[in-house]
Amino acid sequence: MTRRPWILVGLLLASGLAALPASGQVFRYMAFGDSITKGRFEFDPTGQGGYPGRLDDLIDCPANNCVVINEGKDGEKTSQGVSRIETLLDSDDWDVVLLMEGTNDVFNNISNNTIEANLTLMDTKARNRGVDTVHASIIHLDPDSTGGMNGNMVAAVADLRGRIQALAATRNRYFADPWTPLCPSQSCFNTHYHNPPGAVGHPDPSGFDVLAGVFADSIDSKPTPAMVTAVQPTGTIEDTSPDFVWNKETPDDANWYQMRLLDASQAILHDDWSQEVGVCSGSQCTVNLGTFPEGDYTWEVRGRNPRGRSFWRSTSFTIQTLQPPGLPTLREPIGYTGDVEPTFVWQREGELTATTYRLEVSDIGGIIFNQLIPVAGNCAFDTCTADPFAGSPLTAGTHSWRVQGQNGAGAGPFTSPGAFEVEPNLIFWDDFESGGTGAWDTVVP
C-alpha cells in the first residue's frame, strides 16, 4: 500500500499553498460500527483509534486527498445504528460509509433476519443521500473467550457473514471481508485478538492492522473512475426539457454519478448524486431535470466509487425555442418577362429557419399555383429557386406571386405580392444608348 505523506500535506494545508485536485474537495469516509470500529484504547495502546486510524494511511486515493472519520460506538446494536447513522449522514458531506455492525446483536440473541434488515436500512439511508457503502462482514469471535458463547451463536456469526456478502452483491456495493485474514485457523485467536475477560472479539494492534488492510484492499480494488463523455445537450437546442445523456467511462468503474446544472451566471440549478444502476442502461446514462427557460447553460458530470471521484466533464448549451420563419425577399420575376416558363427566385429570411416555402402564383382569375417547396433540393444557402411551370407555359398577361416560410413552429408571414407581366416573344434591344438606357419592344408576327 502507498503510505501517505501526512507531515508534508499538513504543512501545505496549514500554509494555504495546497490546491485541491480537480476531482473536488476532500473525499470523506465515515467508519461506522461498534467498539471494534471505535478501537477501545485498552485494546489498542498504540492510540491509532482502531482500524480507521490505520486506514487513513493505507488508502491509495487520488492526490492523497481523503480522510477517514471514526464514528464507532461502544456496545451499539444495529437497531441503534439505524437512527445514529441518519443523524451523522445529515451532519456532513460524506462520500462513503464503511459499515461493520452486528456483533452486539449476536451477543443479545437478535435474529440475523433483523440484523440484515437493519443493515439494509442503513444502506438505504446512505443511498438516499448519495453516499456509497462498503459492507464488511463482522469478524470471527473466539468461543473460548466469550464466557459461554454457545454453538448456535458461533453458527449465527458465520451465517451473518454470508448474509452481509449477499447484501453487498445485491445492492451493488463493495464488500470487505476480514474473516479469513484475521482468522486463517483456530489458533488465530492467540495472534490477532485480545483474550482477557471483556475483550471478546476485539482485535489487538496487529488485528487492527489486518482489518485496515482488508478495507484498503476492497476500496483499492478498482481505480478512480475516468472522465465520462458528454453526448447531449450541446450547442443550440430547441427542447426546453432536454435529456442529459453521457457515455460511461472506459472501463466503467463508477458506482455513482454527480450531475450539476448551472445557468449563465454560474448559479447552481441542480446538484445531486445518482446511483449508476438507477440512471444508466448499458454504456449510456440519462437524467431529465424538467423544464427550463431559454438561455445559456452549463452541465457537468463526474463519476465516483469508494476510491474517489473522476474529473468533471463540462459541456455548454443554449436553449433557443424555434420561432416561425421571418420574411423572405422576392427577386425575380418582377416587371416584364418574355419567359413563359419563368424561374422564381427569392432570398431566404435573415435567420435561415424555414424548412419549406409556400409558393403561390396568381393571374387575373385567381390562384393558379399553390404548393410547398422544400428547402432541401431547392435552396442553396440563402437563395431558393423553383420552376413550377416548366413544360406548362404561362399565358400572356398580368401575374403576381408571393412566398411564405414555414417550419416546426408554424408559418411565417407572406411577402407582399410581386407583379410581373408575361409577354411572349418579348425582345430586349440593347443597342439604344441614348441616355444610357435600353428599350423593350415586341416582334410583330
Structural class: alpha+beta
Mean pLDDT comes to 86
State Rg.
Answer: 38 Å
Number of DSSP E strands? 27
The percent range for strand residues is 25-35%
Task: Give the structure's gist in a few sentences.
By secondary structure, this protein is of the alpha+beta class. It is about 20% helix and about 35% strand. A hairpin with a 2-residue loop joins strand 11 (about 280) and strand 12.
From the structure above, extract its key features.
single chain; 445 residues; alpha+beta; Rossmann fold; Immunoglobulin-like; six-stranded mixed beta sheet; 22% helix; 33% strand; rod-shaped; disordered C terminus
Report on the architecture of this protein:
This protein is α+β, with helices and mostly antiparallel strands and 445 residues long. The chain has 3 domains: 6-219, SGNH hydrolase (Rossmann fold, 3-Layer(aba) Sandwich), CATH 3.40.50.1110; 229-319, Sandwich (Immunoglobulin-like), CATH 2.60.40; 329-442, Immunoglobulins (Immunoglobulin-like, Sandwich), CATH 2.60.40.10. Helices cover 22% and strands 33% of the residues. The chain contains 10 helices and 27 strands. The strands form 6 sheets. Strands 7, 9, 10, 13, 14 and 15 form a 6-stranded mixed sheet that branches. Strands 17, 19, 20, 23, 24 and 25 form a 6-stranded mixed sheet that branches. The termini are far apart.
